[in-house]
Each structure stands twice: as C-alpha cells, then as structure tokens.
Specification:
homodimer; alpha+beta; 2 domains; 4-stranded mixed beta sheet; about 5% strand; EC 5.2.1.2 (chains A, B); Maleylacetoacetate isomerase (chains A, B)
Chain lengths: ~210, ~210
C-alpha cells in the first residue's frame, strides 16, 4: 500500500497509527502542504479533492478521507480490532473519534488557519482560535475517558479513538495549548510514547520531516 | 427513542433522515441553539459536550456525535442498508459523508460562525466564509457523484452520503451559495424533495421550526 500524506498532518498521522496497529506495511509518498504539492496535477488525478491522506491499496483502489480509510482498515483487516465488539461500545469509540475528527481538527488545519489569518488574525489570534476548539473538545474527551477508559481512551487497548487523540495532542502542543486540565489524556499520550506503533507514526520519524 | 436536536442543525437533520430511512419511530426533544439551551444542566447531564444531536435509545444508552449515531443505526438496524455490502463501496460512501461531515459542516455551524464574526467579519464576510468551504467540498462531491452515483450519491438508493448531503444543500441555500455548478447534487436534492423520509426530516417540518 502507498500512503500519500504529510508528516505533520493530523489526518495522515492518525492513518499511520492505524496502519501500524494493524501491522500493515506501507510506502510513504510525501506531499508538502506548505508548497501546495497536494494541488499538483498527478495527485489530483488520484484524489480530485486535493487533500491528504489518500491510500492506494495496491489493487487499483484509492481511498480518501481518513475516517473512511480507518473504517476500511477495520473491515478488511479486523485483527487486532480497533473497535469494540458490541454496537454500544463501537458507538462510544466512534463518538470520541468524531470529537476530534469533526469538532476539533477541521477547525485547525492549514487551509482553515490561512483563512483565519486572512480575516486579520495574527499569530496570537491563530493560537487562540486553535486553542478554543481544542480545549472545548478535550474537555469532552477527558470526561469520556474518565467514564470509559482504562489506560487508553476506551478500555485497556488502543482503539480508533486513540488514533485520533494522539495526533490532536501533538497539534495542541504546536499551538501552545495548556493541557494541565486533561490528566487522563496526558496519561494516554505517555502510554503512546512507549508504544512502537504510535512511535513509528510520529511526525518527526517520517521521511519528509523537517 | 428520543432525538435531542435543533430543527435547523445539519447534524440533527442528517440523523432524522437516517432514522426515517430505517423506519424507526422517535420523539423529538428540541433545544434552541440560539438561546444556548444545549448548555442547560439537564442536557449536559445527558451529553456533557453540550452539542446536538443526542439519541436516547430507550435502553439507557445515550449516543452522541451524528457520525457515530448513524453507524450505530446501520449496525443495529441493518435494513434497509445505508452502506453498500462491499468494503470498497462502503469506504466510498463514508468518504463522501466525510467530505460534508469533516470538511464542510464543522466550519459553518453556529458556534464557529460566532467566532468568525468575533474576528470582525460582517454578514457578507460570514457568507463568503461559509461559501468557501461549501464550494470546495461540493466540487469534490460532484466529481464523486459523477463517478459513483446513479440518482443518489452512490448507486440508485439513498446511502449515508445522502443523509449528509441533503442538509448541507439546505445550509448552502441559507448562505446564498451559487449551486449552478453542481447539477448532479441538485438532481439528488430534487429526488429527495419527492422522498417521504427526506421530506419528513426537513427542518421546516419539525415541531420547533420558526
């Protein structure tokens, strides 16, 4: 498989974690979002939306949108499971993932930050914008982890929720967000820092890292 | 089941469509987002994140986050299916849903528009902000529907992708977005206007509509 992504993109990072947790080998095809490499014609032929990530599965299929890619990985490579076996648990894990995937990350990615800057925000304004959505979402996640977590977001093994959370924590640090109010999330982050699949997915370990 | 939502919220609207397509009866518990009713203590006990929708399933379970609710509906009430049977098709439908759910809607909801206004945008600026993300996402969706649709977003029956698309088209009209460039999406909208399950889910038909 070939993963088209960007080292520091949260959606690429979460996809790498899931691929690693599933034990799947993949090649990295980097696109530098800062120079808008994702707008190049060759990539647009692969993914007309011009966003990362895209996963070429090797049988002619090109998957886009990380939530869809992660569900596809779970369906086609069920072991180890990244969703619980029961519908209620699965809904809970997906809800946690959506807090990051729908309520935090979409507001803080590069194309949106550029638009916020165009409205007149300076760097402090950008940090405040990002922090607002991160803190709101992390408050919800912290409460959910207190209720459902046991070392990881849900139970005692990594799930899709952790694939979403860890890159969002990395991003929160880039925006200088005070994370002291989220001890359970930090505990998960500390655990991920010792986990080879999360470690190998870290932006700094990617071939296109600065 | 009890659906806590708001007549004009896109995430509530998409959940109503899915419930109707599945033939599931539910009560409506309205929350007026304009007066921040979703921040009231009784609702926060149900959904600590204070966002809509939330679905009480009747057996003590409270589901939040519409992407998680829709997947739960599909798992627990598989007929009629809102996802194709094969993993590749499912990934395609989920990718279309994510274009709306991750790349468009999160940027245009009420809490975000308030934040954009606080950066100094006037009504024209808000419309331009919303239109930017809607047009970008609809371009991607139009191309995907050309490739995969046959009356609906994917194939000849409604899927989760249509549950996401129709509310986003409704929202696009509120922001005065020019939709002439999206003939295939408009064709789906016209078909939904004749479909009783989509009609019954329309904001104007909800008990809390203005």
């Amino acid at each position: 498989m070939i993963l088209h992504g960007y080292w520091r993109s949260g959606t690429s990072y979460r996809t790498r974690i899931a691929l690693n947790l599933k034990g799947l080998a993949y090649e990295t095809a980097p696109l530098d979002l800062r120079t808008e490499a994702q707008g190049a014609e060759a990539y647009l032929r692969l993914n007309p939306q011009g966003l990362v990530p895209a996963l070429e599965t090797g049988d002619g299929l090109v998957l886009t949108q990380s939530p869809a890619i992660l569900e596809w990985l779970e369906e086609t490579h069920p072991e180890p499971a990244l969703l619980p076996p029961d519908a209620a648990g699965r809904a809970q894990v997906r809800a946690m993932a959506a807090v990051v995937g729908c309520d935090i990350h979409p507001l803080n990615n590069l194309r949106v930050l550029k638009a916020v800057r165009a409205l007149g925000a300076d760097q402090a304004g950008l940090d405040a914008w990002a922090a607002r959505w991160i803190v709101d979402g992390f408050k919800a996640l912290e409460a959910l982890v207190v209720r459902h977590g046991d070392g990881w977001c849900f139970g005692d093994r990594p799930t899709l929720a952790d694939c979403y959370l860890i890159p969002q924590l990395y991003s929160a640090r880039r925006f200088h967000v005070d994370l002291a109010g989220f001890p359970r999330l930090l505990e998960i982050e500390a655990r991920a820092e010792l986990h080879p699949d999360f470690l190998a997915a870290h932006p700094d370990r990617q071939p296109d890292a600065d």
